[in-house]
Design goal:
Dihydrofolate Reductase, subunit A; two-stranded antiparallel ribbon; alpha/beta; single chain; 34% strand; 24% helix
Length: 173
């Protein structure tokens, strides 16, 4: 069985790793939204139920194979959604099951939320991070990752922009 490249993609505050407040990003960066769409289009995306309900607003990314990890979504709701989006939406109960379902894809992007990021940080091959400058209040945080840099991951690209920067990390083989 082939294994896709597992890529974590996230935007977080550079100062304190805040990712969200009340289910939404605490900033608006159109260029980052465009970059996100360009990177994930045509690939599998894996997310937790809360990300599905609040960020994606229960609409799958139409150009992606959407895998939602949930143990609490009602079966009738899942059936209705899968009938509505039969070719690009799947619900599973765990990260291993999600990874199994995307094994035929070249790349699988982990798009959130915090619990899913925490559980996949060490499984990922690549991190695509947007680090936003400024102090933001929030209730959702990206997991501590800095301790893995230099030991398990290395930065391979950095792009600086006004108010934010993109950093790409690859697993050290």
């Amino acid at each position: 069985m082939n294994q896709p490249e597992i890529i974590i993609i996230a935007a977080l505050a550079a100062s304190n790793r805040v990712m969200g407040k009340n289910g939404k990003l605490p900033w608006h960066i159109p260029a980052d939204s465009s970059r996100f769409q360009n990177l994930i289009n045509g690939h599998a995306i894996i997310m937790g139920r809360t990300t599905w309900e609040y960020d994606v607003e229960k609409r799958p990314a139409t150009q992606c194979f959407n895998v939602i990890i949930s143990t609490s979504t009602p079966k009738d709701e899942i059936a209705e959604l899968q009938q509505q989006y039969p070719s690009n939406l799947l619900f599973v109960s765990s990260i291993p099951k999600a990874l199994q379902k995307v094994s035929h894809h070249q790349q699988a992007f982990i798009v959130g939320g915090a619990a899913i990021y925490s559980q996949t940080l060490n499984l990922a091959d690549t991190w695509e991070l947007t680090l936003v400058e400024g102090d933001f209040e929030g209730d959702t945080f990206f997991p501590e990752y800095e301790y893995l840099i230099g030991d398990r991951f290395e930065m391979v690209n950095q792009e600086n922009h006004p108010g934010h920067r993109y950093e790409t990390y690859k697993r050290i083989v």
